[in-house]
Amino acid sequence: MISVDHPEWLWGLLLLPVLMLWSRSRLMSEPRRTLLALGLRSLAWTLVLLAAADVHRVQRSDNVATIVILDRTQSIPEAEQQAALDALVLAASNDPERQPEDRLGVIAVGADPAILEMPVVGGQVRVPLEPTRRDATDLGAAVATALSILPDDARARLVLASDGVDTEGNFGESVARSSAAGIPIDVYPIRHQRNAEVRVESVAAPTRVRPGQRSPVRIAVLAQKPTAGVLRLFRSGIEIDLDPSAPGLGLSVQLPEGRSVWETPQNFEGGGTVSWRAVFEPSSSQSLDRPENNVGTALTFVEGEGRVLLIETSRDGAGPLAEALRASGLQVFQQSPEAAGSDLASFAGFDLVILSNVPRWAFTDAQDAALSRAVTELGVGLLTVGGNRSFGAGGWLGSELADVFPLDCQPPQTKELPGGAIAMVMHSCEMPEGNYWGRRVAEAAIETLHPNDFVGMVEFDWDAFRGDDENSGCVWVLPMQRVGDRKSAFAATAALTYGDMPDFDPSMELAIAGLAETPVAMRQIIVISDGDPSPPTQRTIAEANANRVQIT
């Protein structure tokens, strides 16, 4: 079907005879050249008018691509989220108008959207993976992400299941973009009431005490309506008896509407950290809106002789340092990164934490954040021992701890360094949430790169596949380039289609060729896959060795 957006420009075609008569009167050449000139001028005039009128061909499709956006933030009770999920599953499976070629995609949204299912034929609404953060809602980013992954050859439709509470981003702007594109947004409202909320408002414990000191611990609980239950208090993981006169360790309470406060005196002995955890458990007849609010925590540091946590990947190099510290009267605890805790309490009981040539990949994200908070919020000391796996060489660039390190992980631009290049071969992972984690692994690799390093990304695209070309189907989603500010690299990970490549040879050959042209000292191929394609041939492995390319 032909569509014209600005038909008023087509009135200019009426001037075409006048233009031809005027041009003919000025052309005095032979008849053949005159006719050719008149034809070219008429064609040019017609094309200009058609372009101004925005004449285009519209291809209609009966197939529909639907993107389901499910709000997974903590503001919605789990029961209501599950009810919405069940309703969407039922609607998708029983839709009488659903065609065999219709496509379905799924996005879960919290503070950031997570693509759980690209819009594919036979897509299913399934239990979604949790977003990276559930303490905020950015519906605008979810709608924008949905618009970016919609196919061009099908009618589009978005389904938003949410309570409508948006805390970040610009939802109105994304809705305006969807409306301008003619893409409807159907809303499945998740309705819930918070009329039985109970919240442990605070656990007030002394921050620092001396050995032998006796101080109270106060627990404040806020209830929206009278609620019966049991209050429990745990000291460093061990429950204490709040009511010695009654059986059991918990305190049976009848909460009135409003705030209630309890106080229990506690003795502090020895040194180290004491963690407090208060929990309100409702009676079985009560139904609370958000049980996660019924927990409160606090920390108390009991002063003593100096305590040092020495984290090392092996005990070969840091032994003399540990012995020297012990000889000076300090308590030294040597642990591997795996044995070290991952919460704030794990580091709060130490005066000093030493990282002895520890790489970033030996730390979890939770450990990175917890130790950074211990240094900046609690004043825990941090000593870093250099080595071949510390600072920038250990991949700490871009981490939270890098901001508190005594040295900059990113050397000055004037200093020449042996650069590196990474080519990632992205393949579909046919396992639960496989493609999601493949993207997260790729993003984690990008975050460790220096701005002057090189990065590229290869995947398989069936639309580019031709049987007569051994390399067909393998394309550069991100051509080999400098990392820079990482925006292009992250955009490429968001645009992946996760094609199911038959074998690894073509993709690796393409990656090796791209790496070979980079002026760097270290070249690496990272294959993110479920291992289903046929393995690379010995010729490809030899080609990688010849170009000093490592494959992971």
Number of domains: 5
Report the helical percentage. 25-40%
Cα(first) to Cα(last) distance is 51 Å
Give start-end ranges of low-pLDDT stretches: none
Query: What is the CATH first-level class name of the largest domain?
Result: Alpha Beta
What gyration radius follows from the Cα positions, in whole Å? 32 Å
CATH-defined architecture of the largest domain: 3-Layer(aba) Sandwich
How many β strands by DSSP? 25
* Overall outline: globular
Count of helical regions: 12
Q: Mean of residue pLDDT?
A: 80
Question: Strand-residue fraction?
Answer: 25-35%
For CATH, the homologous superfamily of the largest domain is named as: von Willebrand factor, type A domain
User: Which structural class fits the helix and strand makeup?
Assistant: alpha/beta
